[in-house]
Every structure is written in C-alpha cells, then in structure tokens.
Amino acid sequence: MPTWPETVDVSRETRERLDIYADLLRKWNPRINLVSPRDMDRLWERHILDSLQLLPLIQGRERFIDMGSGGGFPGVVVGIAAGIPGTLIEADQRKAAFLREAARLTGARLTVVSARLEQVDVPAAPLVTARALAPLGRLLEWARPLLEPDGVAVFLKGQQAGEEIRDAERSWTMDIRSYPSLTAHDGVVLEVSNFHRVEKS
Predict the structure, then answer these.
(1) Are the beta carbons of 94 and 88 closer than 8 angstroms?
(2) In the prediction, which pLDDT does 183 show?
(3) Going by C-beta distance under 8 Å and a sequence separation of 6 or more, which residues neighbour residue 48?
(4) Which residues share a beta bridge with 189?
(5) Rounded to the nearest 5°, which phi and psi values hold at 114?
(6) Domain locations in the chain?
(7) Is a pLDDT exceeding 70 seen at residue 19?
(8) 69: nearest Cα among 2, 156, 129, 7
(9) Is the omega angle on the peptide bond into residue 74 within 30 degrees of 0, that is, cis?
(10) Which of 48, 103, 140, 182 is the most exposed place for a label (fewest CB within 10 A)?
(11) Helix crossing, 93-106 with 75-82: angle to 10°?
C-alpha cells in the first residue's frame, strides 16, 4: 500500500516541463476551453497538483492509458512527472491536437488517440487513469478492455464518490481503496483492481 503524501514535490526539470505545459494551456484555452476560465489563476493547485497526487499509485507501472484526456489532466501531467509512456484517448479532435502539441513541447512519451472510448482499439496497459469524466460504473465499463488482467485503475473523484461506489457495486465486484484528495476537501482518489461484472442469475 503506498504512503499517501501530504504534498507532492517534483524535480526542477519536471517543474520546468510542467510550466511549459501550463503556458501552452493558457495560450490555447481561450480558443478551445480546456479548463474553466475561472480556474486559470489556480491552474497549478486546481489541476496540476490534483494530477500529481497520483504518482504514489503509479510507481512500478511501465505505461498507462488515460481515458477522456481533455486538457491533459491527469494524462499529460502523469506523462511528464512519472516519465513513463502513455496513451491519451480523447474524442474531440481539437483537444487531441492540443494534447499532441503538449507532448511534443514537453518531451513526454505520449501517444494521442482521437476516438470514442466505446470504439477505441489500443493495446491493454497495466494502469488506466481518468479525471472528471463519468460515474464510476461507466468508468469501469470503459476501463475493463483497456486494462491488463492484473492492472489497476486510478480515478480522481469528487464528493459523489461514495454514492458512485454504491451504485457501481450493483453491477461490479471490485477491490477498491480510497485516498483523501490533496486539493479538494471533499475529493478522493480511487484505486480499483480485480473488477468484474456481476453475473446475472
């Protein structure tokens, strides 16, 4: 079980690459609306640190898939900070173009696939991530074919997490751990493994 941090420290090089990414996001955001304009002044705390807190759960994983990457949270941040290859899945062509440019400028080893999650065809990975995308049950449905048999899914969740877990347990069996968010008093990080659909009797 990982030690959950009180904060997240990164190297100077990583910080510089994250700053490049943040600057690019500020440049593109007025045209594409990658994050809420009211969050731009709190970009590091609200979005980047929120994504960085996944690092303890990523240790030992050789690559990952990020579902519904949007503006790059957590996918681009994880790719930069963890230094592992990743596949970012984003259906919106304009957001996919932004993600490719972010990967190019930061040197992150990321492949961007512009496709719907229901239709995507990529090799399974040992780690699947997502943030602010869908209820837990739907996330498990999308993640199952993308995850290697002994893999782990890590989801950033808000105040509805408890209700989402209860709803998901009607259709799924799973091992699940919950960690308190560093950036939101009512947020959690869910680590889910060994999840399978409940067979109908």
Answers:
(1) no
(2) 85
(3) 18, 22, 73, 77
(4) 156, 179
(5) -95, 95
(6) 12-197
(7) yes
(8) 129
(9) yes
(10) 182
(11) 20
